[in-house]
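Quick one from the shared queue. A colleague (R.T.) flagged Peptidylprolyl isomerase as missing a structural entry in our internal table.

Convert sequence to structure tokens.
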Amino acid sequence: MLVVLRKASKTLFAKILLILLVASFGVWGVSASLFSNTSDTVVAVGDQTVSSADFAFAYQRQVADMSSRFGTQLTTEQARAFGIEAQVFSQLAAGAALDQLAADMNLGLSQDRLAQLIADDPAFKNAAGSFDRGLFSSRLRNAGLREDDYIQERSKVAIRSQIVDATADGFVAPKVLIDAIKSYRYENRDINYLLLTNANIEPVKAPDDATLAAWFETTKSGYRAPEYRSFNYVKLEPADIADKASITDDQIREDYERRKSSYEIAGTRTIEQLSFENR
């Protein structure tokens, strides 16, 4: 099978499909809005299509997986910040491209091989290490999957793996890439730290009155500030409003005659009298 796949992958049509497969990751990852339309099809590669329901299910599954990793339910804004929507588009586009290539190459998977792959999945094995039919149904039910849908999807994944393994067989990664991945995966950090708690600190006693008084005397200047008062006033004097040139002597005389009673002071006399009962 691998020999046939290698030969098929060398054809011009297969190479074009593989190039489109790689390009789909970049295109869908840049902007999913470029392919928005009113139909139910989200992704179309040849005869392979992905419906909006399939996309919604894959998106929800990806969000649930990320939420379990972070230990909290991601909001729509957080999922968008992580680029989950673009990731799901890229995965679905790549899967559709591989499915189309598999269909063009007439690749398939036997029922026995498919059953063996499902039975070998650790997620469906019991404590004894054997396939558990009840555990299989329970896991799919908890994931919101029907058995037929899961089996169909598992078959597609297995066929896709055949294509990927065949095209990647014999590929040797550059040493720089291997060293970078190895350094990333197995990199360690040594941390030296000192832990200080209240138990390492001698308790500070409450100061007595003498200590507080002495401290206040040395620092009281820092708490003093001059006292200020603010006020508003209008300065107005007779000279500011009086116009001497506009008052005549007759007006002064007339005003005096009218007010002269207020300027008069009645005359007074002091009398001393001695009284005797008889002369």
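The mean pLDDT is 81.
Residues 40 and 52 are 6 Å apart (CA to CA).
Added to the table.
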